[in-house]
């Protein structure tokens, strides 16, 4: 494929060598384009020739080619360079260097800037074992609390702020629908 398309792209931004670094031009640029975007905390200079910088990521509603993104963000990105993001989750984690202890540490989620409704979620993806463990926890919770309706389970996990549970509940509707149907049938 000569011009692959994707929805999420990333770039680097830096404004000169002075600190404090102003992110206002980047934020205003992102707001003008009106696409959800995320800006990392300010990272220190990389190596001897590097400059303080931030990484930013932008989400398009539909897949677009790189030339389109460069037309939108090339003027603000360092050297006009933008690249496709293969994993949004990994990129969000990279913004805080969560998986690379050899890189600068000490960033907080609160240091991340979101623009135009973007959602920053650096929690790691669930493994297959995590999914199975949570499904069992959910079934036990339903049994312990007499929950036999899918809507009640959805409301309960939100009220409990168990977002990993909610992710599983909403992505395994067939399983939980069959589980509740079986519980109701068994009660007859």
Instruction: Give the total of beta strands.
Output: 5
Integer-rounded radius of gyration = 21 Å
Oligomer: single chain
Largest sheet strand order:
4-1-3-2-5
Shape: elongated
How many domains in all?
2
The CATH architecture name of the largest domain reads 3-Layer(aba) Sandwich
| Proportion in β-strands | 15-25%
Q: Would you tell me which CATH topology of the largest domain applies?
A: Replication Protein E1, Chain: A
Any low-confidence stretches, pLDDT <50, length ≥5? none
Q: What count of helical segments does DSSP give?
A: 7
What's the helix-strand series? Answer: EHEEHEHEHHHH
Structure commentary:
The protein has 188 residues and is an alpha+beta fold. The protein has 2 domains: 5-115, Replication Protein E1, Chain: A (3-Layer(aba) Sandwich); 128-187. Helix content is 41%, strand content 16%. It has helices at residues 24-33, 66-73, 88-95, 128-145, 150-159, 163-171, 173-187; strands at 5-13, 37-39, 54-65, 82-84, 113-115. Strands 4-1-3-2-5 form a 5-stranded antiparallel β-sheet, sandwiched between helices. 18% of the residues are buried. The mean pLDDT is 89.
Structure, briefly:
This protein is of the alpha+beta class. The protein is built from seven helices and five strands, in the order E-H-E-E-H-E-H-E-H-H-H-H. The mean pLDDT is 89.
